[in-house]
Amino acid sequence: MQHVLVWASAVAETEPVKNPLLPEIYDIVWSIVPFSIVLFFFWKVILPRMQETLDARAEKIEGGIAQAESAQKEAAEALEKYNQLLAEARAEASDIKEKARAEGAIILAELKDQASTDAAAITAKAHQTIEAERLAAIQSLRSEVGQLALDLAGRVIGDQVKDSKSSAAIVDRFLSDIEKNEKSK
Amino acid sequence: MLNGLTSLVLSSGVEFHAPSISEFFPDIVLFEGTPFAMNRIMIIRMIMVTLLVVIFWLGTRNMKIVPGRFQALLEMGLDLVRVNIAEDLLGKKDGRRFLPILTTIFFLVLFLNITGIVPGFNIAGSSVIGIPLVLAVASYVTFIYAGLKKHPGAFLRNALFPPGVPKAFYIVVTPIELLSTFVLRPVTLTLRLLMNMIVGHLLLVLLFSATHFFFLGFGEWFGYVFGTGTLAFGIAFSLFEILVAVLQAYVFTLLTAVYLQLALAEEH
Question: Higher pLDDT residue, A19 or B54?
């Protein structure tokens, strides 16, 4: 114990105790130098780099939000346009349908008209032809029947009925009689 | 037992080396006799400054918008100062203005404090008064500059003659304000950091040299039991010193920011 005490006091004697609150010149120098280096380094290099990164990050985030917004806006516009086009197309389609229906009706009516006129014309023509045929038939029958009657009468009488004028008159009277008989019957 | 102690010390040649204040004034090894004289603490400072510069240079050389692991770690450190101290206390605009000084203080103090528990260094670069003093002066100059710039003329008047106090009280208030604002702030900044580092170092030296003494000088079960005890405390306090290192860096920076905030505040 005594020895330790002696040892401790010997240390105290050999080394003058320095006051830790009083800075040495070199201590101050080697404090200002590190401080200056680190201050300059952070001020001019690190913090600007950091700020740049933060700005880039913020820009990217804001840019992304803006892009998303514009994309959404575009999509909404496209949708609206599409709906408008669809509505237009629908309206046009129904228009066309309506028009087509109306045209169809008109065409149908025209066709019907035409058909009935044609039919009437054909019927009239047929009537005409039949009438003409009938008249021609009557004409030829009359002359043929007259000749036959004359020939028959000549054979019966044995004499030629020469007078064609009187014979013709006889035939006509005969035929009129036949017609009269036919009608009275 | 006591006789056994002295005889053991003598026979083994192991002495109990009590830590003393001369720990902080090791022999000059470079540039002796010039203002640039360096002892191992000054060398440790410059090594740490170099390390700090290299780490941050490499970590921010090619910064990505989506950070990698290393960049994220550095950004976390920078954001601690930027967001939690500067912007919180000073707002966006002034926070950005004074960010360089605050960031410098934080990382310089942190890097120099941590050497106290780095094996091989074993002493904090900030455990000699130079660093605490220079940083406290920097902080002092910065907040006075900020106050004078923001409220030319009114800053000193408001600081020394707080408005709203009856005129007669200025006899008492003004000396107190003068002392607390312009004298005690830098002094407490310096001493808080310095004494934390000095005491931390002395405590660790005490515990580890006691361990050394107990194990090698003492031996026997008595020495091993006590040696194990002091070793365990030494390890525990080493871990505690990490906390102190970070905490002191944070406190120094935070107080600087608070002084700046008070200087920049609108007239009350």
Answer: B54
